[in-house]
Amino acid sequence: MTPARAPRAPRGRDIGLDVRAPKEGCDDRHCPFHGRLSVRGQILEGTVVSVAMQRTAVVERTLLNFVAKYERYEKRRRRYLAHSPPCLHVPVGHRVRIAETRPLSKTVSFCIVQDLGEASRKVRGEESATAAGPEPEGAAP
User: What is the pLDDT of residues 17-72, one digit of tens each?
Assistant: First the structure.
């Protein structure tokens, strides 16, 4: 009799991009590392602004557009719905890299492939009172 083999740690497959496969495995068939989903086309970076949907995240990119008439720049934003594999665990506020895939639903044609870490508050446009520090007591507003 041959001894039973211990199950190996799940290894992600190479998806053809310069990103590391997550150390944790998953059984999601739409995961580019552990499922059958291939990535092709555009590769974009943005900030996760919502993860309220199941396995889907809203990724926002902020762009500057030059308006020649006023010789100024205006901010524009574009939101992408991207599949969020459970092996990545991406929270709101993190910068991510998304890659184009085949259409997964009516509105989802991208998949998160890399978590780049927490975005700076300046990029997200949020300023909290704790970032400025506590106000001294007795100071007039």
Answer: 888 888 888 888 898 888 888 889 999 999 999 999 999 999 999 999 999 999 99
Q: What is the pTM of this model?
A: 0.73
Report how far residue 116's alpha carbon sits from residue 101's, in angstroms, rounded to the nearest whole number: 20
Residue 3 CA to residue 49 CA, distance in Å, equals 49
Between the CA of residue 75 and those of 50, 72, 81, 125, what are the distances in Å?
Answer: 20, 10, 20, 11
Which of 19, 25, 23 has the alpha carbon at shortest distance from 112? 19
Amino acid occupying residue 7? P
Q: What is the CATH number of domain 39-121?
A: 2.40.50.1000
Amino acid sitting at position 132? A
Cβ neighbours of residue 49 closer than 8 Å, sequence gap 6 or more = 58, 59, 60, 79, 92
DSSP 121: H
Query: How many secondary structure helices (H) and strands (E) does the chain include?
Result: 2, 5
